[in-house]
Each structure stands twice: as C-alpha cells, then as structure tokens.
Amino acid sequence: MHSRLEVSYIGTMRRAGILLLGLLLLLGLLACSTTKGTLLDEAAERDKKDSTVKSFGEDPDPFEPEAEVTGLEIRSYPRGADVYLDNRYMGITPLLLDDVEPGRHKLNLKMEGYYSESEWIDYSGDYDSYYFELDEITGFLKVEAFPPEAEIKFDSFWLPAGRLHELPIGFYNLGIRAFGYEETSRPVKIYMRKVTEVRVTLKGVAFALSDLQSSRTAFNPRNAGLLGTARIRFRVTSHGSGQARITDPEGRVVLTRNLGRFTTWQQGFDWDGRDPRGAPLADGRYTVRVEAVAEQDGQTVTAELDLRIDSTIVLRYRSLWSGSAGLLYAPSTEVLPGGSAQVSSLFLAHSSSDDDGANVRVPVSLALRFGIGGRNRFELDTSVGGIIGYRQDTFYLPWFASAAFKASLLTPSGFLSLGSAAQVKLTYQNVYTDTLANFSGLSLGLPTSVHVGPVALLFSPEVIVSPWTVSDDSSTTPDAGIYGWIYGRFGLLLDLAPLSLGASLSLRTLPFDEGFGLDLPFQAALEAHWLIPKTQLFLSLSVAGEFDPPGSYYLLGGAGLGLLN
User: Fold this and answer.
1) Dihedral through CA 339, CA 211, CA 214, CA 368, nearest 10?
2) What does the domain layout of the chain look like in residue ranges?
3) Per-residue pLDDT reduced to its tens digit, 264-303
4) Fold of 23-54+319-564
C-alpha cells in the first residue's frame, strides 16, 4: 500500500512540475517587456555611467581628421600565398602595398599545392582590393582490397575502398583495415590529374577481446539519465558473439545480457544499476563478466570488470547565477562528488522602450562547478559574465567574476532531513548596482536546507565585507571604504530528476553603519532545469526580476544550456 501511495504522490508532483514549467515559459515570454516604475531606468543609468563601451550620435572632434586607407590590398583563400607584382616578389597574403605606382600591372599569386592565379589590374593610386580563391591541385586514388568491405584512412577519415577518391597531390601513408583482418599501411603518391591504383590483400586476425572498461567505475542509479548509468564498452578483433553477466557482492546474477553477433570492433551495453522491477540495487561492488565466442573456431575468451554502486554519489544540476551553486538567488547545501564537474550558461533579457528610446539589459553568466577531494565533501564554484546593456544610444557592459568554496557540514538523508554547508565567496564587479545579488567583496555564508521528499526549503544567511556600497543612483559615486551588510537568501526547490523547479529570493540589509533595515530593491526568480533524454545536457528556463515596493520593478526572461558529468 505504501508503494502505491508513493508512486501516486510522485506522479502528482511530476504533473505539477510540468504545469509550473509551462507557466515559467509563459512568464519568460512576457518578461522581455514587463516593467513598471523607475527601477529599470535607475539601474541602467548607473551601469551606463560606470561601464560605457560605445556611444553613438556624438559629434566627432573637428581637429582629429579621419585617417584614409590607401594602397593595393591583396587577399587570398587560403592565406599565405606568395604575391608577385610585375614578376617582382612582394610578400604573402594578406598584403597591403602602399608604394605601387598608378597604372597597369600584372599580379601573380603562387602557393604550393594550388594552381597559380594571374591577372592584369589597373591600379588607381588610391585604395584597391583584390581577392583570390586558389584552387587545390588534386589527383585520384583507387584501392582494390580484399576483403571488398575494407576501408582506407586519409587524414582522420576512413573512406570505403574500391571507389575513386579525389585527393590533394602529395605523399601519404594510407591505413587500410577491415573487421576480422590485420590493419596495414601503404605509402602512396598522388599525382596531378592522374589515378594512382593500389591493390591490397589483408590477412585474417585471431579472435581477441580487450579494453573492457566503463564510463563510471562508481555510480548511483538514482541519478537521472546517463548520470545514473554505466556505459560498458570493449573491443573485439573478429566475428563472434557474446554474453554479459553482472553479479552482486554475494555472487548472485543481477543481469544477463545477450550481446548478439559482433560485426565491428567496438562493442558494449549500458547498465542502469537496477533490478528487473526497476528498483535501484543495493550499494556494493558488482562484477561485470563478458564471455565472447569466436565465430571461426569456437574459441571462448572472457574479461571481467568491477563496478561499484554508491548512493552517496549525488549529481544534481544547479544554477550559479549569484556566484554559488543552488537556485538563482539561494545557494543549496549539496556539493558535487570529487572529480565531477558542471559547465553552465544562462542568458536573461529585458527589452522595453519609453520616451528616451530603447532600454535593453541582457545579463549573461558562464560558470564552472567542481567537486574536490573526497566524495561529496568540498566544491569550487567559479563564474564570469556581464550585463550587455543599451540605453540612449549607448552600449554599456558591466562585468563580474566570482569564486566560491563550499564545504558540506550535514548531508540530508531520508524522506525528512536537514542539510547544511559552509561557504566563502570572493566577487568583483565594475559597477555599483546589484542585479545578480553578487556584489563585490568577500562573503561568508551558511547554506541550510530542510528536505521533505523531493521538496527542499533553502535558507542562507550571508555576511559580506566590501570596499563599496550598493547604489542605483547615477548622480553619485560611493566612497571607497570598508562596508558590511547581510544577505538573506531563501528558496523552494522541487527536485524530480530529470526535472527540477525552483523559486528564490534575495534580501539585502542596509550597511551596518547605517542602522538596521532593508536596502531595496530585492531580487526574486523562478527557474526550471530539464535533463535532455539520453544526454548529460540540461536545458534551463528562468524568469528573474528586481523589485522596489510598492510599485517599481522589471523582469528578465531567458534560457541556458549546461553539462553535468
């Protein structure tokens, strides 16, 4: 009865998750034009003042004349061709000649392995440009091989034998192979517009099995998709067939897989670490034994490999928007296992217009997350990015970089559990706004979580020491000094691997020297992450915003892509 209730509960939660994902997508579409009040204008003006890249519509300096480009420019594809002007060597492409007399000239381009180009040109004496696409000199190769299904290797490509192949002229050492035969090589020379013929008879090879290995020596079947799967691969030399058998620590067979007939070198199968009913197997060491039988003489060869199922290896995709892994504005308590890594990107955007013209903000974040040391103990999070902005004919680009070190203190376990971690983070950005709730300075945090099944409540108090204070006022520049305040970060996470959904909120207090109170605006976000089936890639959708009650706010919406291994 309990299992039926659990399945029903998870199914209901998944349907709720899909509904929330659809709502999130709709909000993301609306976010690109949703704004009210002056908060957006103030943030844009502040960032524009601090980080202007290019302004348009300004009058040029009348005392600074524009430089004129003169000369004869010669370009080619590929680059590096020898240039001759009136039979005199001038250099290699791309080339700009500024001492050519006006008039009629003969231009020649030469390059080894390519046909020469020649053209009469009329040079005006000002600026002229000529571009040439050089044709490669080629010949032909035909390899007659036994067996007929043999392949020939040119550069890094394998091509079918028995056909006519057009190749650049020159010397080559061709590899020739066929399944069930010894690989060999032959030196050949390809001549211009001629056919080079080669005949090869390959020798049969003895049956062998080698290189039995797994993509993961230890894994957790509870992780989603390929993250909870071991990809077992091996190599054979000739035709045959095989069977794989996996046994548990007590020697009981938990999986038998018929591998079929071998028709190519690389063989393998995937194992999800589950029993026939789909339940994850118990932790422990398992043995993979592959038995292969040669088709020609019935010879049997075997190979074994040990794998470990370990439920403590928890791989979950998380946002790194505000400098540390978790939700966009609230760090989580879990850390990656040692040797694991996550690469992620996120692009959010807002576009609107008013009496002053277009107002565009596009925050961009690229991040790396590493598990360090022992299993699920320490993690390093790094991120870089910026806010691509456009306002009043001006492009601006605030940028940031941050690094956070997280140590696990208490790992959640069971349906109802607690988690905690300690975190130190160092951040620098070249503006005084705080759109990402990741301001310049050194911060210490204590991420804490309460878990009820797949639902987690996140809370993280964070003390920051900074050389500046946060300011959205473009008319003033904060004085340098030593300032401190507290971030309060809150989140709600629903983890239904391969889908996770979250909502987060970041509040900031006034600097300690200004007394007790909130320093508005605050930040909030909704997000969703989905593991693309049969991959380790995650697609992210997010809506974030800044809010200055009672009536000023703006929203950003966008997407990202990441990889977890």
Assistant:
1) 30
2) 23-54+319-564, 71-125, 138-191, 221-309
3) 999 999 999 998 888 999 999 999 999 999 998 899 999 9
4) Porin (2.40.160)
